[in-house]
TrEMBL record:
CDD domains: GST_C_Sigma_like, GST_N_Sigma_like. Residues 82-203 form the GST C-terminal domain. Pfam families: GST_C_3 (PF14497), GST_N (PF02798). The keyword Transferase applies. The keyword Transferase applies. This is Putative glutathione S-transferase. Residues 3-80 form the GST N-terminal domain. Transmembrane segments: none annotated. GO terms for biological process: glutathione metabolic process. GO terms for molecular function: glutathione transferase activity. It comes from Heterostelium pallidum (strain ATCC 26659 / Pp 5 / PN500) (Cellular slime mold). Keywords: Transferase.
Amino acid sequence: MTKIPTLYYFNSRGRGEGTRLLLTLAGVKFNDVRYNSALTPEIRSKTTYGTLPFYEDDDIQLAQSLAIESYLAGKFGLAGESPIERAKILSVSQAAIDFVLPIFHSDTDEKKNRFKNDTLPRLLNSYERLLIDNRNTTNEGKYIVGNKLSWADVSVFYVVDFLLFKGFGELVNQYPALNFAKSSFESIPVINDYLQQRAQNNN
Ligand SMILES: N[C@@H](CCC(=O)N[C@@H](CS)C(=O)NCC(=O)O)C(=O)O
């Protein structure tokens, strides 16, 4: 890799944080370009669909957060070892979007209540159950799919971290397996460094 990879996103976690976490985990230095205002026509025209995140490195220019994450997970050995594992990992990562998107679209009290009392517990229960079902003496409950760290664990961390950031701590704290997986992930030294640095930005 000769050119430093670049991630273009807004100055927030949103759909860009999964990519930042994956690159950090892989120990890859990258340009973290963060926009603070609406996209200009010039930026839009540079991206495939006129939206962010958008990613580029020596080999590829790519839009769509899941596709970018899938590409990086494959490149850095975090995408699973078999078709079944790969599918399970994608399933967990795709569910992460279901967790997060309604936060932005819940613009009435009714929608906010439905998200908090129905959608969110249903999805948190699903992750909790997957972690418990996958727990064994080898992975000690650290991983949601298989016996090694994967993109799915990045997605689990992303969701829990984001929900805490958005003030759902009381609910999230009711899921011990999920909280254990989150703590394991954030104790990885490169991730710990990244989180400390991110705290200064507070986004
Ligand atoms: N499905 C796309 C969604 C892309 C998307 O809608 N991005 C938003 C930010 S999260 C965006 O670029 N909004 C600015 C705009 O549309 O003007 C993905 O996951 O990457």
